[in-house]
């Protein structure tokens, strides 16, 4: 079953002096129930635009997005967004922050409170539920933001570079927490990341976008077991091959074959 689907999506923005910028062109793919897909591509190729279209914040110029088979026609409550910045409200405790989306959606308060406590427990924040965001470390705040994203029990999680503002070791722990949660709750997610290793170890598939206008130029199926154990996946010998292919697609790094070709015979 398809949780999220893009069909022939093109997005144009008004640029400077009446020019039009085509951010993405004819993008189509779907994310199945319980699947995690990473989206990688150069800056400005339209990754965030795609998430904004999936969440209903932007209406595409052409094509359409579907969530659970229904066409996305405006901000929709079956989708939850998480960004690089945790965006926790400073005047609310951690638990109150986790409950924010459930209040906006008017979900049952008692059930939501139980769910928030369970999530905070799962993210090792149980003891901190009455603290305020400024009393927590960056990694803890991102875990709280993740708990808030999950508290509304969304059909689809849209994660836009969620870990890019934390240090490398915190990031590894957050990847572990995220992977565990996604697998346990059988959640569907579309993740944007610039970190090729992160894309490989967290995903079932990685989609590569071209530079603007962004199109999907490659799809790599990650054939490594244990998606709930990114630490284990990290050590799998197949990882290096996937990363090499991603680097080639993104045109990153040295090209020994080309360099050799330039040398006089
Ligand atoms: P990415 O997330 O891959 O870095 P974005 O989706 O943010 O890229 O942006 C893709 C292109 O669309 C960029 O050229 C950006 O300037 C443009 N763009 C994105 N959002 C808007 C907007 N609201 N108005 C005008 N141009 C936009
Ligand atoms: Mg972006």
Q: Number of DSSP helices?
A: 9
Report the uncertain regions: none
The CATH class name of the largest domain reads: Alpha Beta
Gap between N and C termini, in Å?
A: 56 Å
What order do the strands of the largest sheet run in, or round the barrel if closed? 6-7-8-3-9-10
Major sheet summary line = 6 strands, mixed
- Say how many strands there are: 10
Query: How do the SSEs run, as a string of H and E?
Result: EEEHEEEHHHEHEHEEHHH
Give the overall shape, derived from the CA principal axes: globular
CATH architecture of the largest domain: 3-Layer(aba) Sandwich
> Beta-strand level of the residues, as a percent range?
15-25%
Radius of gyration: 20 Å
Features:
2 domains; binds magnesium ion; four-stranded antiparallel β-sheet; Rossmann fold; six-stranded mixed β-sheet; alpha/beta; 265 residues
Plain-language structure description:
- The chain is built from 9 helices and 10 strands.
- The protein is globular.
- It has a 6-stranded mixed β-sheet, with helices on both faces. The protein has a 4-stranded antiparallel β-sheet with strand order 2-1-4-5, covered by helices on one side.
- Helix content is 36%, strand content 25%.
- Helix 2 packs across helix 3 (109-122), helix 2 runs parallel beside helix 4 (138-151) and helix 4 (138-151) runs parallel beside helix 5.
- The protein has 265 residues and is an alpha/beta fold.
- It folds into 2 domains: 1-78 and 155-252, Rossmann fold; 85-153, no CATH class.
- The structure holds adenosine-5'-diphosphate and magnesium ion.
């Amino acid at each position: 079953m398809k949780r999220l689907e893009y069909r022939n999506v093109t997005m144009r923005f008004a640029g400077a002096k009446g020019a039009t910028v085509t951010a993405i062109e004819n993008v189509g793919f779907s994310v199945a129930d319980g699947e995690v897909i990473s989206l990688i591509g150069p800056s400005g190729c339209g990754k965030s635009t795609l998430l904004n279209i999936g969440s209903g914040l932007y209406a595409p110029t052409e094509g359409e997005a579907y969530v659970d088979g229904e066409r996305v026609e405006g901000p929709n409550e079956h989708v939850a967004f998480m960004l690089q910045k945790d965006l926790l409200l400073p005047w609310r405790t951690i638990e109150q922050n986790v409950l924010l989306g459930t209040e906006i959606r008017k979900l049952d308060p008692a059930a939501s409170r139980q769910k928030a406590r369970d999530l905070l427990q799962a993210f090792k924040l149980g003891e901190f539920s009455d603290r305020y965001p400024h009393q927590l470390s960056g990694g803890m705040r991102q875990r709280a933001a993740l708990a808030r994203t999950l508290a509304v029990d969304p059909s689809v999680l849209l994660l836009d570079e969620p870990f890019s503002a934390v240090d490398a070791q915190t990031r590894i722990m957050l990847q572990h927490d995220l992977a565990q949660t996604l697998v346990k709750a059988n959640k569907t997610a579309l993740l944007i990341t610039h970190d090729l290793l992160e894309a490989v170890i967290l995903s079932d598939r990685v989609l590569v976008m071209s530079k603007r206008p962004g199109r999907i130029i490659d799809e790599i199926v990650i054939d490594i077991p244990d998606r709930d154990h990114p630490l284990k996946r990290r050590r799998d010998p197949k990882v290096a091959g996937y990363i090499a292919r991603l680097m080639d697609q993104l045109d990153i790094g040295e090209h020994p074959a080309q360099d050799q070709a330039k040398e006089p015979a």
